Amino acid sequence: MNNTYTDLVTQTFNFPQEGFEVKDAYLQFNGLDLKALIDKYGTPMKLTYLPKIGMQIRKAKKMFAAAIKRHHYEGKYYYCYCTKSSHFSFIVEEALNHEIHLETSYAYDIEIIKKLYARKKITKDTFIICNGFKQKPYTSRIASLLNSGFKNVVPILDNKEELQQYKRSVKVPFKLGIRVAAEEEPNFPFYTSRLGFRARDVLEFYVDKIEGNEDRFQLKMLHIFLNKGIKDDIYYWSELNKVINLYCQLKKICPELDSINIGGGFPIKHSLGFEYDYQFMINEIVGNIKKACKRSNVPMPHIFTEFGSYTVGESMAHIYSVIGQKMQNDREIWYMIDSSFITTLPDTWGIGERFLMLPINKWDVEYQRVVLGGITCDSHDYYDSEEHINEVFLPKIINGEPLYVGFFHTGAYQDQISGYGGIKHCLIPSPKHVIVGHDKNGKLVDWVYAKEQTAQSMLKILGYK
Q1: What angle do CA 362, 364, 370 make, to 5 degrees?
Q2: What are phi and psi of 124, to 5 degrees?
């Protein structure tokens, strides 16, 4: 008796699960009929399912509300979207439909803020948290927002010199934050993050440069972000508690300080075996902050987060066709896809990221171990392991329709890193981009946001006019 791909998945995981189920041997993604979309638009295809963004935001807000209620926490919670995860207007505006705030990373982000305000998607009361090591084009744009009445724009100081630029250019009272440099994990090549102030320098900087200038600017926020994300281990709790304790020290001499920003870092599902207790982590974060404040007898701060991948990551899929099979030796069977991993999912190549990979069809067919190959001439253009196992299994290719393969929860950073449009390795074109969302009447509709890139568009960039 042959084991089908359905047998493999159901024996290995609890399946179906949220966002994924199989009907008539075809995979459904958040209830979407993927085969129908493939028949309509073809492959390769990038697919964005906008309603997932609101689902993620509501889930986080609900969990923070539960933790605040459980601990009788006296501060408020503010959800910010980290725009660098995906800057597209349809992403940012969908997120803003759910009463959130924004975080920026570079000067051009501020131009997006101006557009959003002109479209009435944000107000001058919306919190705009401005991170990053800032050059003059960035600080001057921040100053312009502040001078025009955006009272909740909060530049987060990354170094001691940055404050001088606002002192020269901002003409109204404004709020400040300070980023505290986190210690990196022991396996990281550096001891301390390049971003932010050394923790031991913050108190002295406040006393020397900020205290006494409250009529011009006030320190309102301490900010921390850990590269490894929000995880239940000694490293995370140690670094978080350093900032909480620093807040308690500062609060005693800086009554204006009222917020802690813990950045982003919630993980998303990159495997059907993914397990993460979001509510437990939120309960612990809120509880730790409250305990430290009670111990130091200082008011509890408002809590800000800057979720990027968590907000948008699970809203996207990349779908390919297997266009050929190659047996290169006695062990390795290659399935060649109609695109490139390097150009469409650069994190698989650059940092060895593993996404949730599943076939769209042929769930009732016997499976085998394979390696997926892209169509560039680069030997690194391949995908050979999943997050839960160092192998890839997919249905065997038999007569009939092609095998379609989906990489899911790919919505964060991939377009930003690969460069949307533009020139790609080996001139492999960017796939068509299809969006699924609700129209004005609440009906679910799909449309093409961008067609597959053409040879003419590339040649123009390269100067072959």
Answers
A1: 55
A2: -75, 0
Alpha-carbon span 270 to 266, nearest angstrom: 12
Distance CA 212, CA 224 (A): 25
User: How far is C-alpha 460 from the geometric centre of its chain's CA atoms?
Assistant: 32
Contacts of 254 (CB under 8 A, 6+ apart): 206, 210, 211, 219
Q: For 297-424, where are the alpha helices, taking DSSP H only?
A: 309-312, 341-344, 346-350, 414-418
pTM: 0.94
Contact 321, 412 (CB under 8 A): no
What is the C-alpha to C-alpha distance for residues 366 and 8, in angstroms, rounded to an integer?
9
Tokens at 186, concatenated: 């022991």
Q: Of 356, 340, 342, 361, give the one whose Cα is nearest residue 392.
A: 356
- 455-459 own/partner pairs: CB under 8 Å, 24+ apart: 455/427, 455/429, 457/421, 458/423, 458/427, 458/429
Contact 358, 408 (CB under 8 A): yes
Predicted confidence at residue 420, as pLDDT, reads 85
Tokens of 441: 């009447």
Q: Is the peptide bond before 51 cis (omega within 30 degrees of 0)?
A: no
pLDDT in tens, 416-460: 888 888 898 899 999 999 999 999 898 999 999 999 999 999 999
pLDDT digit string, tens, across residues 253-308: 999 999 999 999 999 999 999 999 999 999 999 999 999 999 999 999 999 999 99
Residues 412 and 264: their CA atoms lie apart, in Å, by 13
For residue 281, how many other CB atoms are within 10 A of its CB?
Answer: 19
pLDDT digits (tens, 9 = 90+) for 43-73: 999 999 999 999 999 999 999 999 999 999 9
CB contact set of 80 (below 8 Å; sequence gap of 6+): 100, 101, 102, 103, 127, 129, 304, 305, 306, 307
- Angle of helix 278-296 relative to helix 234-251, nearest 10 degrees, comes to 30
Q: Are 13 and 373 in contact (CB under 8 A)?
A: no
Three-class HEC string of 79-129? EEEEHHHCCCHHHHHHHHCCCCEEEECCHHHHHHHHHHHHCCCCCCCCCEE
Better-predicted residue by pLDDT, 336 or 379:
336
Give residue 391's pLDDT.
86
Q: What number of other Cβ atoms are within 10 A of residue 325's Cβ? A: 13
**Average pLDDT value for residue range 374-400:** 88
**Mean pLDDT of the chain, nearest integer:** 94
